[in-house]
Amino acid sequence: MGTIIIAIVIISGVGAFLATLLVFAERVITNYGDVEVDINKGDKKFTVRGGGSLLETLTNQKIFIPSACGGRGTCGYCKVKVLEGAGTLLPTEEPYMDAQERAEGIRLSCQIKVRNKIEIEIPGDLLTIREYSCTCEKIIDYTYDMKQFNLKLVEPTSITYTPGQYIQLLAPAYEGSPEEVYRAYSISSDPANKSGIELIVRRVPDGICTTYLFDHLKEDDTVRVNGPYGKFYLRDTNAPIIFIAGGSGIAPIKCILHHMKNTTIKRKAVFFFGVRTTKDLFLVEEMKQFEKELADFTFIPVVSQPEEGSDWHGATGRVTTVAEEFLKRMPTVSDCEGYLCGSPGMIDSAVKILADLGIPEDKHYYDKFS
Predict the structure, then answer these.
(1) Chain-centroid distance, C-alpha 85
(2) CA of 178: how far to CAs of 68, 172, 173, 304, in Å?
(3) For residues 114 and 49, is the Cβ–Cβ distance under 8 A?
């Protein structure tokens, strides 16, 4: 028995020593000291403590790179050009890079560790992205899993953006989520109102940011956002418009419709809006109002699985299938532009349908909600 106890003590001691050694080694190895970051060949330089991700490092310097997934490496948005200091392309980056991007040194900033001097190039307009302090003025419940958050700007007091763009919202640490995270949300409000923004958000089960918004954020609380970002906006042409969206994908399209009304754009437009059940429908009356106010706008809500016994008499099935059948009857569908917003699966399906109908790929504009 004594031998067994001695053996246990020795093994425990060796384990504790190794654990201590690993902690010590980690601290030494990850102590990279001060590291210089050079942006756009000297346009901006700063020195930081090494070891963090490039995305995190830039964010801490109030340089905001677009990222829809909060730095988890799942959206592929946070691309920067690295001239020096990033090492080899990581397996986590490869799915998001085409051959040209690899040749040009494009990398995902959330996956790169700042370990030594690093030189990068980013679009100049990202250096002018602002951070905004807001007050949550109002929270509107649309459905069981969809809310609208009306944010009033406090500092600065106004924002200018292109209808269709998005912001990044900071979810602070809360019980169950020990770290701050950013998530991207499209602006849904009337762009004529520069003193505030509205966000339409769908709850993601166990989502860090949506849990904060749905369960912790209260009216009159302070919210921090930065932006605007994105290239999803209405092109300045006379082409007929096809909008296809699902769920919270209605947000940027609603913003664009406000813009069309404000600027008296008279282009023909049809909006296919897909939801699962009639309980998921919202903003229907507002869309009907746009039908009255815009020159040539048609709103077609689509319910994929109407509840048994529901009083639904509108379009049913997949929103992309309904859109396809409708568009096949249009004599000049190939002249249209497609604006798509929603889940990656819905958008991929819609892109294929538009291409099959003869709409060139360079007339497909979309915003994937990942």
Answers:
(1) 28
(2) 19, 8, 5, 38
(3) no
Residue 42 has pLDDT above 80, yes or no: yes
| DSSP classification of residue 96 | G
What's the token pair of residue 158?
Answer: 């106004």
Statement to judge: residues 285 and 326 lie in one domain: yes
Same domain, 135 and 217: yes
Task: Find the distance separating the first CA and the last CA of the chain, reported in whole Å.
Answer: 59
Quick one: pLDDT band at residue 14, thresholds 50, 70, 90?
low
DSSP-derived secondary structure letter, 132: E
Average pLDDT, the chain: 91
CATH number of 76's domain: 3.10.20.30
Range of the structural domain that residue 258 is part of:
241-368
Helices (H), the chain: 2-29, 54-60, 99-104, 208-215, 250-262, 284-293, 319-328, 344-356
Neighbours of 94 (CB within 10 A): 10
Q: How confident is the model at residue 215 (pLDDT cuts 50, 70, 90)?
A: very high
Query: Do 356 and 247 share a structural domain?
Result: yes
Q: How many domains does the chain have?
A: 3
Q: Is residue 145 part of a domain?
A: yes
3-class SS shares of the chain: helix, strand, coil, % to 5: 30, 30, 40
Closest by CA to 227, choosing from 68, 42, 109, is: 68
In a domain, 266, yes or no: yes
Judge if 198 and 299 occupy the same domain.
no
Nearest 5°: the CA angle 138, 144, 148 is 25
Is the pTM for the entire model greater than 0.90? no
d(CA 166, CA 34): 34
- Same-domain pairing of 139 and 44: no
**If you count them, how many residues does the chain have?**
370
C-alpha torsion 327→331→332→336, nearest 10 = -10
Q: Reduced to 3 states, what is the DSSP secondary structure of residue 369?
A: coil
pLDDT exceeds cutoff 70 at 96: yes
Are the C-beta atoms of 171 and 212 separated by less than 8 Å? yes
What CATH number corresponds to the domain at position 204? 2.40.30.10
Do 284 and 182 sit in the same domain of this protein?
Answer: no
At residue 172, φ and ψ (nearest 5 deg) are -70, 170
Average pLDDT over residues 307-321: 94
